[in-house]
Design brief:
The protein is of the alpha/beta class. It contains 6 helices and 13 strands. It is 24% helix and 28% strand. The strands form 2 sheets. Strands 1, 2, 3, 4, 11, 12 and 13 form a 7-stranded mixed β-sheet that branches. Strands 5-6-7-8-10-9 form a 6-stranded mixed β-sheet. It binds fe (ii) ion.
Length: 257
Amino acid sequence: MRVLAIGDVTSPGGIAHLEKHLWRVRREEKIDFCIVNAENAAGVYSYTPEQAERLLGAGADVLSGGNHTMRQRASYGILDENEALLRPINYGGEAPGRGYTVMRVGGVRVMVICAMGNIHIEPTLDAPYAFIERALAREKGNYDIAILDIHAEATGEKLSVAHAFDGRLAVAFGTHTHVPTADLKILPKGTGYVSDLGMCGESGGILGMDAEGVVKKLRYHLPDRFVPSKGAPTADGVIFDIDEAQGVTVALRRICF
Ligand SMILES: [Fe+2]
Protein backbone atom coordinates (compact mmCIF):
# COMPACT_ATOMS: atom_id res chain seq x y z
CA MET A 1 0.00 0.00 0.00
CA ARG A 2 1.04 3.57 -0.57
CA VAL A 3 1.03 6.11 2.27
CA LEU A 4 1.48 9.86 1.98
CA ALA A 5 2.60 11.80 5.05
CA ILE A 6 2.49 15.61 4.98
CA GLY A 7 4.44 17.88 7.34
CA ASP A 8 3.02 20.35 9.87
CA VAL A 9 0.22 22.52 8.49
CA THR A 10 1.29 25.98 9.65
CA SER A 11 -1.74 28.17 8.95
CA PRO A 12 -5.31 28.37 7.61
CA GLY A 13 -3.63 29.06 4.25
CA GLY A 14 -2.10 25.59 4.49
CA ILE A 15 -5.56 24.11 5.11
CA ALA A 16 -6.92 25.89 2.01
CA HIS A 17 -3.92 24.64 0.01
CA LEU A 18 -4.71 21.04 0.92
CA GLU A 19 -8.40 21.58 0.14
CA LYS A 20 -7.35 22.75 -3.31
CA HIS A 21 -4.78 20.06 -4.14
CA LEU A 22 -4.72 17.02 -1.87
CA TRP A 23 -7.46 14.90 -3.50
CA ARG A 24 -5.88 15.49 -6.92
CA VAL A 25 -2.45 14.46 -5.60
CA ARG A 26 -3.99 11.39 -3.96
CA ARG A 27 -5.53 10.36 -7.31
CA GLU A 28 -2.41 11.09 -9.38
CA GLU A 29 -0.04 9.32 -6.99
CA LYS A 30 -2.47 6.48 -6.17
CA ILE A 31 -2.30 7.17 -2.43
CA ASP A 32 -4.18 4.67 -0.24
CA PHE A 33 -3.78 6.47 3.07
CA CYS A 34 -2.79 9.98 4.06
CA ILE A 35 -1.52 11.35 7.39
CA VAL A 36 -1.25 15.09 7.95
CA ASN A 37 0.45 16.67 10.97
CA ALA A 38 -1.98 19.44 11.89
CA GLU A 39 -0.62 20.71 15.19
CA ASN A 40 -0.13 24.27 13.89
CA ALA A 41 -3.02 24.46 11.42
CA ALA A 42 -4.79 27.37 13.16
CA GLY A 43 -1.49 29.30 12.98
CA VAL A 44 0.79 28.01 15.78
CA TYR A 45 -1.91 26.55 18.06
CA SER A 46 -3.45 23.30 16.84
CA TYR A 47 -6.81 23.52 15.05
CA THR A 48 -10.44 24.33 15.75
CA PRO A 49 -13.06 21.56 15.36
CA GLU A 50 -14.14 23.17 12.08
CA GLN A 51 -10.55 23.21 10.79
CA ALA A 52 -10.14 19.54 11.71
CA GLU A 53 -13.25 18.68 9.67
CA ARG A 54 -11.92 20.70 6.74
CA LEU A 55 -8.59 18.85 6.78
CA LEU A 56 -10.33 15.47 6.91
CA GLY A 57 -12.58 16.57 4.03
CA ALA A 58 -9.51 17.71 2.10
CA GLY A 59 -8.16 14.14 2.03
CA ALA A 60 -6.39 13.52 5.34
CA ASP A 61 -7.26 10.14 6.90
CA VAL A 62 -5.48 10.94 10.18
CA LEU A 63 -4.50 14.25 11.75
CA SER A 64 -1.41 13.80 13.85
CA GLY A 65 -0.33 16.23 16.56
CA GLY A 66 2.47 17.60 18.67
CA ASN A 67 3.43 20.04 21.39
CA HIS A 68 0.70 22.55 20.41
CA THR A 69 -2.21 20.12 20.07
CA MET A 70 -3.49 20.61 23.61
CA ARG A 71 -3.32 24.42 23.45
CA GLN A 72 -6.63 24.65 21.59
CA ARG A 73 -9.18 23.91 24.30
CA ALA A 74 -12.06 24.17 21.82
CA SER A 75 -10.78 20.94 20.23
CA TYR A 76 -10.70 18.76 23.36
CA GLY A 77 -14.21 17.45 22.57
CA ILE A 78 -13.39 16.47 19.00
CA LEU A 79 -10.10 14.90 20.13
CA ASP A 80 -12.13 12.64 22.41
CA GLU A 81 -14.80 11.85 19.82
CA ASN A 82 -12.93 11.42 16.55
CA GLU A 83 -10.59 8.44 16.22
CA ALA A 84 -8.80 10.09 13.29
CA LEU A 85 -7.35 12.82 15.53
CA LEU A 86 -4.20 12.19 17.56
CA ARG A 87 -2.27 13.98 20.28
CA PRO A 88 1.12 12.77 21.55
CA ILE A 89 0.84 9.40 23.25
CA ASN A 90 3.24 10.42 26.04
CA TYR A 91 0.71 12.91 27.45
CA GLY A 92 -0.73 9.92 29.28
CA GLY A 93 -4.17 8.46 29.71
CA GLU A 94 -5.74 11.37 31.59
CA ALA A 95 -5.32 13.93 28.80
CA PRO A 96 -8.19 14.35 26.33
CA GLY A 97 -7.96 12.37 23.11
CA ARG A 98 -5.73 9.46 22.11
CA GLY A 99 -2.13 8.87 21.12
CA TYR A 100 -2.78 6.16 18.54
CA THR A 101 -5.50 4.83 16.32
CA VAL A 102 -6.08 1.73 14.19
CA MET A 103 -7.88 2.21 10.88
CA ARG A 104 -8.93 -0.16 8.14
CA VAL A 105 -7.66 0.69 4.65
CA GLY A 106 -9.10 -1.87 2.25
CA GLY A 107 -8.17 -5.10 3.99
CA VAL A 108 -5.17 -3.64 5.82
CA ARG A 109 -5.28 -2.59 9.47
CA VAL A 110 -3.11 0.49 9.84
CA MET A 111 -1.99 1.63 13.28
CA VAL A 112 -0.84 5.25 13.52
CA ILE A 113 1.00 6.44 16.63
CA CYS A 114 1.83 10.04 17.49
CA ALA A 115 4.66 10.48 19.99
CA MET A 116 6.78 13.39 21.13
CA GLY A 117 10.44 13.64 21.89
CA ASN A 118 11.56 15.38 25.07
CA ILE A 119 14.97 16.76 24.11
CA HIS A 120 15.00 20.55 23.54
CA ILE A 121 11.22 20.53 23.21
CA GLU A 122 9.18 19.39 26.23
CA PRO A 123 11.60 18.20 28.94
CA THR A 124 8.82 17.52 31.47
CA LEU A 125 7.39 14.77 29.26
CA ASP A 126 8.51 11.20 29.76
CA ALA A 127 10.53 9.85 26.84
CA PRO A 128 8.39 8.19 24.16
CA TYR A 129 9.90 4.68 24.07
CA ALA A 130 7.84 2.99 26.79
CA PHE A 131 4.60 4.54 25.52
CA ILE A 132 5.21 3.23 21.99
CA GLU A 133 6.22 -0.17 23.37
CA ARG A 134 3.02 -0.44 25.43
CA ALA A 135 0.78 0.65 22.53
CA LEU A 136 2.32 -1.95 20.19
CA ALA A 137 1.92 -4.63 22.86
CA ARG A 138 -1.68 -3.66 23.60
CA GLU A 139 -2.66 -3.81 19.93
CA LYS A 140 -0.63 -6.91 19.05
CA GLY A 141 -2.65 -8.95 16.55
CA ASN A 142 -4.97 -6.03 15.84
CA TYR A 143 -2.86 -4.27 13.20
CA ASP A 144 -0.94 -5.22 10.05
CA ILE A 145 1.32 -2.20 9.74
CA ALA A 146 2.34 0.47 12.24
CA ILE A 147 3.29 4.05 11.41
CA LEU A 148 4.88 6.50 13.85
CA ASP A 149 4.94 10.30 13.77
CA ILE A 150 7.84 11.23 16.04
CA HIS A 151 7.30 14.91 16.77
CA ALA A 152 10.62 16.17 18.08
CA GLU A 153 13.25 18.87 17.81
CA ALA A 154 16.44 16.82 17.89
CA THR A 155 17.33 14.74 14.84
CA GLY A 156 19.34 12.34 17.01
CA GLU A 157 16.32 11.64 19.18
CA LYS A 158 14.12 10.97 16.14
CA LEU A 159 16.72 8.54 14.76
CA SER A 160 17.09 6.86 18.13
CA VAL A 161 13.34 6.25 18.43
CA ALA A 162 13.17 4.95 14.85
CA HIS A 163 16.11 2.56 15.36
CA ALA A 164 14.66 1.36 18.66
CA PHE A 165 11.57 0.13 16.78
CA ASP A 166 13.21 -0.76 13.45
CA GLY A 167 11.30 -3.54 11.72
CA ARG A 168 8.32 -3.26 14.07
CA LEU A 169 7.21 -0.01 12.49
CA ALA A 170 6.63 0.15 8.72
CA VAL A 171 7.31 3.88 8.86
CA ALA A 172 8.78 6.38 11.31
CA PHE A 173 8.65 9.95 10.08
CA GLY A 174 9.70 13.04 11.98
CA THR A 175 7.78 16.31 12.28
CA HIS A 176 8.00 19.62 14.19
CA THR A 177 10.98 21.46 12.68
CA HIS A 178 9.03 22.38 9.52
CA VAL A 179 12.25 21.87 7.54
CA PRO A 180 12.22 19.01 5.00
CA THR A 181 15.28 16.82 5.45
CA ALA A 182 17.10 14.87 2.72
CA ASP A 183 17.86 11.77 4.81
CA LEU A 184 15.19 9.40 3.48
CA LYS A 185 16.24 5.81 4.13
CA ILE A 186 15.11 2.33 4.92
CA LEU A 187 16.60 1.20 8.24
CA PRO A 188 18.28 -2.27 8.41
CA LYS A 189 15.12 -4.13 9.46
CA GLY A 190 12.76 -2.29 7.10
CA THR A 191 11.40 0.85 8.77
CA GLY A 192 11.06 3.69 6.26
CA TYR A 193 12.51 6.82 7.85
CA VAL A 194 12.87 10.56 7.34
CA SER A 195 13.95 13.04 10.03
CA ASP A 196 11.42 15.69 9.06
CA LEU A 197 8.64 15.83 6.50
CA GLY A 198 8.70 19.63 6.25
CA MET A 199 5.58 21.79 6.36
CA CYS A 200 2.41 22.84 4.57
CA GLY A 201 1.75 26.57 4.47
CA GLU A 202 2.99 29.88 3.14
CA SER A 203 6.58 29.78 1.91
CA GLY A 204 9.25 32.47 2.10
CA GLY A 205 9.34 33.20 5.83
CA ILE A 206 10.70 31.36 8.84
CA LEU A 207 9.08 27.94 9.35
CA GLY A 208 5.85 29.26 7.82
CA MET A 209 5.75 32.52 9.79
CA ASP A 210 6.55 36.01 8.55
CA ALA A 211 10.25 36.69 9.17
CA GLU A 212 9.83 40.11 10.79
CA GLY A 213 8.08 38.92 13.94
CA VAL A 214 10.42 35.97 14.39
CA VAL A 215 13.55 38.12 14.03
CA LYS A 216 12.08 40.67 16.46
CA LYS A 217 11.60 37.97 19.03
CA LEU A 218 14.93 36.18 18.56
CA ARG A 219 17.12 39.25 18.00
CA TYR A 220 15.60 41.74 20.45
CA HIS A 221 13.63 39.40 22.74
CA LEU A 222 10.56 41.56 22.17
CA PRO A 223 7.15 39.88 22.20
CA ASP A 224 5.32 39.92 18.90
CA ARG A 225 2.47 38.08 17.24
CA PHE A 226 3.61 35.56 14.68
CA VAL A 227 1.66 35.87 11.44
CA PRO A 228 1.87 33.56 8.41
CA SER A 229 4.49 34.31 5.81
CA LYS A 230 3.38 35.96 2.56
CA GLY A 231 4.78 33.52 -0.03
CA ALA A 232 2.79 30.99 -2.07
CA PRO A 233 1.61 27.99 -0.03
CA THR A 234 3.31 24.64 -0.62
CA ALA A 235 3.05 21.20 0.96
CA ASP A 236 6.05 18.97 1.77
CA GLY A 237 5.56 15.25 2.18
CA VAL A 238 6.99 11.79 1.72
CA ILE A 239 5.37 8.86 -0.08
CA PHE A 240 6.05 5.42 1.45
CA ASP A 241 5.47 2.19 -0.47
CA ILE A 242 4.78 -0.48 2.12
CA ASP A 243 4.79 -4.27 1.89
CA GLU A 244 1.80 -4.87 4.11
CA ALA A 245 2.50 -8.62 4.46
CA GLN A 246 5.93 -7.90 5.97
CA GLY A 247 4.96 -4.58 7.60
CA VAL A 248 7.99 -2.76 6.18
CA THR A 249 8.77 0.01 3.68
CA VAL A 250 10.16 -1.03 0.29
CA ALA A 251 10.52 2.42 -1.30
CA LEU A 252 10.11 6.06 -0.35
CA ARG A 253 10.41 9.41 -2.09
CA ARG A 254 9.70 13.08 -1.51
CA ILE A 255 6.80 15.04 -2.92
CA CYS A 256 6.15 18.80 -2.85
CA PHE A 257 3.02 20.42 -4.26
FE1 LIG B 1 5.62 21.10 17.03
